Amino acid sequence: MIILRDLSLRRADRLLFEEATASLLPGQKIALTGANGCGKSSLFAMLLGELQADKGDIEGLGGQRIAHMAQDVAASDLSASDFILQGDADVAGLLAALKIAEASDDFAAAATVHTQLEACDGYGAERRARQLMLGLGFEDRDTQRSVAEFSGGWRVRLALARALMMPSDLLLLDEPTNHLDLDTTLWLQDFLKAYRGTLLLISHDRDFIDASCSAVLHIEQQRLNSYKGGYSDFERQRALRLAEQRASAEKHARRRAEIEDFVRRFRAKATKARQAQSRLKELARMGEMALAHEDSPFEFRFPEPPRGRDPLIDLRGAKIGYDTKPLISGVDFGLCNGDRIALLGRNGTGKTTFLRSLCGDLPLLSGERHNSEGCRIAYFDQQQVDTLDLDSTALQHLQRLTPDAREQTLRDFLGGFDFRGQRADAVLRPFSGGEKARLALALLAWQRPNVLVLDEPTNHLDLEMRRALEIALLEFAGAVIVVSHDRHLLRSTADSLYRIAEGRLSLFEGDLDAYETLILRGADVASDSGPAKAEDADRDRSIVDRKDQRRAAAEIRAQRRPLEQAIKKLETRMESLQKQLTDIEGALAEPSIYEQDAKAKLTELLRDQGAHRSTLEELESEWLMQQESLEAMIEQG
Description:
This protein is an alpha/beta fold and 637 residues long. Among the domains are: 250-293; 313-527, 3-Layer(aba) Sandwich (Rossmann fold), CATH 3.40.50; 557-636. Helices cover 48% and strands 18% of the residues. The chain is built from 21 helices and 18 strands. The chain has helices spanning 40-47, 80-85, 89-103, 107-119, 125-135, 152-165, 182-193, 206-212, 231-245, 250-267, 273-289, 351-359, 383-386, 394-401, 407-415, 433-446, 463-475, 487-493, 512-520, 532-588, 599-636, and strands spanning 2-11, 14-24, 29-33, 55-59, 66-68, 170-174, 198-202, 215-220, 223-228, 313-322, 325-335, 340-344, 366-371, 377-380, 451-455, 479-483, 496-501, 504-508. A six-stranded mixed beta sheet has the order 5-6-7-3-8-9, with helices on both faces. Strands 14-15-16-12-17-18 form a six-stranded mixed beta sheet, with helices on both faces. Helix 14 (394-401) crosses helix 15 (407-415). The chain is globular and about 110 Å long. The two termini are 53 Å apart.
């Protein structure tokens, strides 16, 4: 057991810990959470012996083998395989000693090393290193490439593999999923379930925490508070604790009312009933959990977008890729107002390439792409951060976009992203990656897009900012297509799942849980077990099965299309009526309408209000009947 006893730590003029106490039990898997800058990385540094507490002690570290994931990996000529092997220092030392003994024909020394290698399973080290690389998305040919040949994100994966390679009693992982895609995140999640030591994990991926951890250690007000369960359990427990501490929860009630109002409005618009139910549940859950986040510094909305003509973006017969090498062929895809799509697929299948082609940033190799009149696209990827002017302020960035806007309006908007007061006037150069990503999102939101194309938008965002982004996307009235390894973001914001596999884009008929099951069963993950012929036969059968599934899915979609079109027409009429009704009620709220000379106008408004309400109720009843028919058809399919 590791005991953190009465720790106090001050960095510069900031107090991070004051008499903080916690226990880490053997084999326990713990998520370390808290606001940015609260001391999570400093706690890791204390456990690694790189930083000493001002007061207090850490007991129980003696004799513990500690593995941790480096955040920066320098370029080197070492091969990727050798770099990972060095994570197991004992085995790496024995292999190096064996080479020396064999080169000098010292057979006695070589025999001793062989005995030691056998005792520590050293002969399996290269196989384990290869399995780690394949699991983390590398290919076989990557094993002999030098570390210097990999980009920064892939070097972080190498660092993660090296940490996992090391035999350890305590494993410290700081944002291990930041540079992973969803499939690789699922592989890591499965790997950590089998880890036998104590895991202390910093992550902003709540689903990953829920699946990997059985406890949460939350840093708050310079203390360490322990909670049982994953992040969802932590939210519930913290909300209950805060509710008990407060006799009045006015802010909680107001936020919950907003959520419930949106649930009501959304329920009358949802066109994909099966997926929509999960979003409705998520919205309701957000209302219940709002108190756990009432001290969040983030709260923003995407401005109401202009409505463009459908389809907003249309691809027909598109072949997508670079130069003459296609990654995806035969793409027929339309993005319409209100669509909410998550794009799935292994790393390297072309998800980012597809998004760039959809936005028009990358020309099609063949086929056609059309934007409708009024289509306004906002595209976010990590390169958006690189385009920021680091010698300017957040406020100056917004002022350049809209020079005529009132400064206070700009400051109010930036405040929702936690750029308040002097922070809005500070130059960006010393800002953290998370702060720059927040500003890049703010700049996109400010431009009033009706299409949001998001490629890993949550990288570098902490849990509170991710939650604010989820709420903003839930309330966004435009179209959304997103690539993310954050399953909670996908569950709460996407109605449809599309998958890129084998060079094709297709609708994934299952939900995210079904996709997770598919990946964890190994359908898409590299494996080094089983005869090659059996693998080929399985692959051939899988391709045939998928073709049959796609054909059947296409037939089902054709049968559903008339119902879906009828539902869409009903929604358009309901939306128009609701807008007219809102205008009427706005006019009835004016005191002047009740004056004597406005009596005729008042009578007309009241008559129109009653007629509109009656018609709206009839349309809603018809919509519900059509939805039930559609749901029955979906379940039969």
